[in-house]
Design a protein that fits this description.
- Helix 3 links the parallel strand 1 and strand 2.
- By secondary structure, the chain is of the alpha/beta class.
- Strands 1, 2, 3, 6, 10 and 11 form a 6-stranded mixed sheet that branches. The protein has a 3-stranded antiparallel sheet with strand order 8-7-9.
- It is built from 16 helices and 11 strands.
- The protein is about 45% helix and about 15% strand.
């Protein structure tokens, strides 16, 4: 009898192996119990669909996240490069069409329209982002974080990194105490220093100029909040004052505002040639990378106004049919780890984008020291991280983009 049972067990095992059905421990978890998430993720492979167009970013992902996942959690990272994020979105959409659940995608590097497409289709794993332990370091109250290009994040995605509008000055010409710290102070400075300031023309190829004008709209109207959702009456109320501001400074601009730089490089050139006193950047490294490229003087420094410096975030999202949700959650939480957040801002590591967390929310002394050390490595050419965090606001609802660009061209450039 014992021999019969042994043969039966052996036969059952071989049958399971041949059919591909292998017994494994449970991968169920409770989002409110992080230990259960980590335990369920152990041994899983997380399929991260990520834009693959940068070899330096690919190396950063493999070397930093791949290694940390394996060493800390026994999770294998499978980085799946895509030519465009829409390819990953289409993968999820096609799986839905085919009724494939589970699918192939565990995590997507995403934002903007691609996020909104999956959100509208109800194809994103819900109610998870704020349950990550490291989400406590995210400033979810800031519309720059909780709105993704005007669309509510709604706990469907978690931030990874950021970029933010900044100004650049030459410390050999100006002192920090002499810098304008608002659009109101900038207007005063421009009038007192005629011909020494200009900005990029808003419009196609000049999104930094559009963003600069939007920041003025925020200050003139008293805040960024009303502009997160489109309202024609609000635009009609405040746009005349916006054009009034730019028309008032126009006669005092470089070349009396008769012409404007078409892009960032042209403005850098004017700045480097000492024709104007300010340039711009969106990079977390401030003026550092521009100095390395020889585009601005070695004495160039980045700074921000006290408020209304528009930035945006990129995120990660988990499809509703993700096969390894626990591992995806662990990876999303890892992206917000202060140690790796510190690593991602350093240009030599190949990523070089800004913090996804608010450094002012980090209380652990060791974590704080890591972030401060990374910021110090950026040198004096970078805007202090705490200044970036305190001045950060989100962009407007998408409908204002063309209104700003067309309105500026009509009422400021053409003077109608």
């Amino acid at each position: 009898m014992k021999r019969y049972l042994s043969l039966l067990i052996l036969f059952s095992f071989l049958l399971s192996a041949c059919s591909g059905v292998v017994q494994s421990r449970s991968t169920t978890f409770d989002l409110n119990d992080w230990d259960s998430v980590v335990n369920a993720a152990k041994g899983q492979t997380v399929n991260w669909y990520i834009w693959g167009g940068s070899e330096s970013i690919n190396r950063f992902v493999d070397d930093f996240y791949g290694k940390a996942l394996k060493e800390r959690y026994d999770i294998t990272l499978n980085r799946v490069p895509v030519a465009d994020t829409v390819d990953a979105v289409n993968q999820v959409l096609s799986e839905k069409e085919a009724g494939k659940d589970p699918g192939a995608v565990d995590l997507i590097w995403i934002n903007g329209e691609n996020f909104f497409t999956l959100k509208q289709a109800n194809l994103l794993y819900p109610d998870w982002a704020r349950k990550l332990p490291n989400s406590a370091l995210v400033n979810w109250e800031n519309p720059a974080v909780n709105l993704d290009f005007g669309n509510p994040v709604d706990n469907l995605e978690s931030p990874w990194s950021s970029a933010q509008f900044q100004l650049i000055y030459d410390s050999a010409r100006m002192q920090p105490e002499d810098l304008p710290r608002s659009y109101t102070e900038l207007k005063e400075w421009v009038v007192q220093n005629p011909g020494r300031f200009t900005y990029i023309a808003p419009g196609p190829g000049g999104f930094q100029g559009t963003r600069f004008v939007k920041g003025a709209l925020y200050e003139i109207s008293g805040g960024a909040e009303p502009w997160s959702a489109f309202d024609q009456a609000t635009w009609d109320q405040w746009s005349p004052q916006l054009w009034g501001y730019f028309n008032e400074i126009k006669p005092y601009l470089w070349r009396q505002g008769e012409t404007y730089p078409k892009d960032e490089n042209e403005l850098h050139s004017l700045f480097a040639n000492n024709e104007v006193d300010f340039s711009i950047t969106q990079a977390i490294v401030g003026a550092g990378a521009l100095i390395e490229q020889g585009l601005v003087p070695e004495t160039a420094r980045a700074f921000v106004f006290d408020q209304y410096m528009i930035g945006d975030f990129n995120y990660v999202a988990i499809p509703a049919n993700a096969p390894n949700k626990a591992a995806a959650l662990v990876l999303a939480n890892l992206l917000l780890d202060p140690e790796l957040q510190a690593a991602q801002i350093l240009p030599e590591n190949g990523f070089g984008l800004g913090f996804g967390i608010d450094v002012n929310r980090v209380t652990d002394p060791e974590d704080k020291a890591l972030l401060e050390a990374a910021a110090q490595k950026l040198g004096q050419a970078a805007t202090p991280a705490e200044d970036l965090a305190s001045s950060l606001v989100g962009d407007t609802a998408p409908q204002y983009q063309s209104l700003v660009e067309e309105g500026w061209r009509q009422y400021v450039l053409q003077g109608q």
